[in-house]
Amino acid sequence: MLEPCLFKKGTVLGIILLFIFGCCMPSFTGTSIMKRNQQISFTGGTDEAADKTVVTCVAFGKPHNSKQTATLSQDDTSMIFELVQELKSEMILHPFSEKTQSLKRTFVDLLDEKELIPNGVSKEAYLSLLNPRWVERVQKTAHKSSSPQLLADHVTCSFCSVGGEGVGVLIPFFQLPRPRLFMQWTASDAYTTAANLFTSKGYIAGGAQTGFTFGFMGIGMCYAIPGYTVYGFIGYALHASTTAEYIELYPPNRAPEIYDVNPADTEQNIPLSTSELQFSIQDADSDLMSYSVTTEPDIGSASGNLKPFGVYKVPISGLHDFTNYTWHVVVTDGKDITEGTFTFTTEPIAPIISNPSPADGERDVPMDISYMQFILEDFQGDAIDYSVETSPNIGSKHETGVYDGTYTVPISAVTYGVTYRWYVNATDGTHWARKIFSFETGYPSQFNPFEFGWRYRKQITIHHTLVVDILEDYTLFISTIDPNLMKAQNDGDDILFMSGPGTAKRQYHEIETFNQITGKLVAWVNIPTLSQDTIFYMYYGNPTCTNQQNPEKTWNSHYQAVWHLNNIPTGVIVDSTSYDNDGTSHGGMATSDLVDGKTGKCLDFDGTDDYILVPDSSGLKPTELTLSTWFHSNQEIFPDGHFLAKQCYDYWSNSAGQTYGFDTTPDTLIIDGSFEKDAYEQLELIGNYQIEPDTWYSLVLTFDESTDIGSLYVNGNLEGTKNCDPSVLWYNSPWDFVMAGCRFGVGHEQVINTFYNCRLDEVRVSNTPLSSGWIATEYANQNNPTGFLNIGPEEPHP
């Protein structure tokens, strides 16, 4: 919290002296202001001028010709004052933008056209009042180190009293109690307060900051002392704007709300004739709101500035049948941002072709496959004619007058290593549907590798005492240095795992590291059923086969993301699952940050600006959860935050700082599991584990929706449980999954401002709570892979 006492006694005394001194001095600086006389005048006893408005334009501080008055129509008057409002908004929010400069020129041209510029004052001179010489200096100053960092937040207040003091520069340097169009300050450390004169609502801003007032009336002074330039001011403003490191609102701001969307979210069968989207917005504080709407695929967009609560519409066109559309609404009251993402699906007119088998793009489809399948539907119940062709030709089919159902196409003469395409055409007599699918063939569903070119194999046996439970669809970790593997291809493409000797089923795998020179292999192998008696085989030594890896089938469907963190961080941080939740590194991460980890290579984060962002996706927002990682702290104490989390909103806006993650206690090396629904309503900390620096720890966080139990495991052992709120996995914003960095108290923007000096390895997100037996077995496997299994002697081709 910011200190309630914002001004030191010396500063207050200085401002009082400024006020006394200012009252005795005339103003010498020119500014401009325009005021509107709303009274109705009559001429000659008629109401001829009843629809006219008298507008006076004043240039303060000019020695002569300081004002000009004109009688304008209501339309002209409204146009001028609407432009004033837009210009005011842009000058406050984006004072140096090209749009703001263009609006200034348009404003002066309009005043000139309506003969409101005082006689003897040129347009250029009048424009200079909107562009005082200090603007350029302030713009340059904003780039110096004394300006706020990128983590700063922005806040505004209208019709307010405003005051401030700090170490920095106030421009103009000297303020007298005369109206002034602009005032600006830039400070490395300061306090600023502003409050609306009618409602007492306002803000306190602290730390490094820049500020800006429009229509200021008050006193102030900037003064240099050895080593510092300090300033203080107090007065009134039509509008005050501050960008600062720390901001508190009084009372706390309430974010806008989006409701009554039409079409309703996830609504189906929307007519193709639909011509608009509709939504309502409101703000509990009665703030004006700005909004923007985008669509994907693009069927239209819209935006609006400074709008009251109400219903708003977005024109759309070009809808296609049976298509899923997403529309994203962003609303801000200038303090907080509310976002809403909604979807709808248009009505199906043509027949629907779906659920191909083999799946589109599937690899390693057994070459002994004998048929393909797909589902055919027509939502109007019409009879359907369809045809199927293949290329290369392995079969075809044609039928007429069929109805909804699953249809099978016999195929034959399928060969290994070929990409096949199949084309499905369907019509209800009026509308056509066309789909193209493909698949790539592999070895038969069961085969003997020795009959397909492999020369060597080894038996692998699991040490049965280390398997806690029978585990289905388990991914096993293998790490070995075996000179016999020097006989494999140089990239390990011929390494293959089978469920047994001779004719057996293949077991899908992913190679993380292979070095033919040393025979070092780091790999992950899918074991359909891992029990205490599990035995399987590794084959190698086939110089002609293609790559036998299949990472996407190595990980069961519950895994929403698996990051080995074995990629050079200047490129993509690859997710091994089929969901493609790839990430990107930020900060100064380089090739040297790829280092030896717990299960192969991992990434080293410097604690200064290194972190990884993974874009929001539905898979990273499960209702049940397992989050796991290997963690190694390079620092003696933690900052306040969370080093691995699916982030949402933040502590300063009555919303969550993260949804799930690993929380740290500042100035210690204590780790908790953390679920956070709302910073003021729901924060669940699970466990409380003290770690040591320079040591690897296995961390696992789970949430079981059926019991509402959250659990924290460290090194395979249960360290804490908690009965949580049923809706604790609550996702209010489409923000990123973050590694080694977090947001803390930074307002509505997604800015990372806390960093961890650590190493992370093997980060995973699963949409199911893994059992304690699974977690204990996984720890035993990954912590000591050579002790978990035994690789037998080489067996050559008989």
Structural class: mainly beta
CATH-derived topology of the largest domain: Jelly Rolls
> What is the helix tally?
8
Q: What is the residue-mean pLDDT, rounded to a whole number? A: 85
Q: pLDDT below 50 for ≥5 consecutive residues: which ranges?
A: 1-50, 60-65, 132-151, 650-656
Name the helicity range.
Answer: 10-25%
Annotated CATH architecture of the largest domain: Sandwich
Work out the number of β strands: 49
Structure description:
The protein has 798 residues and is mainly beta. It folds into 6 domains: 9-27 and 136-250, no CATH class; 38-131, no CATH class; 257-346, Sandwich (Immunoglobulin-like), CATH 2.60.40; 352-442, Immunoglobulin-like; 449-555 and 785-796, no CATH class; 559-767, Jelly Rolls. It contains 8 helices and 49 strands. Strands 31, 34, 35, 37, 42, 43, 44 and 48 form an 8-stranded antiparallel beta sheet that branches. Strands 32-33-36-45-38-39-40-41 form an 8-stranded antiparallel beta sheet, with no helix packed on it. Strand 39 (660-665) and strand 40 (670-678) form a beta hairpin. Helix 2 (74-93) runs antiparallel to helix 3 and helix 3 packs across helix 4. The radius of gyration is 34 Å and the shape is globular. The protein starts with 8 loop residues before the first helix and ends with a strand. Mean pLDDT is 85; it is low at 1-50, 60-65, 132-151 and 650-656.
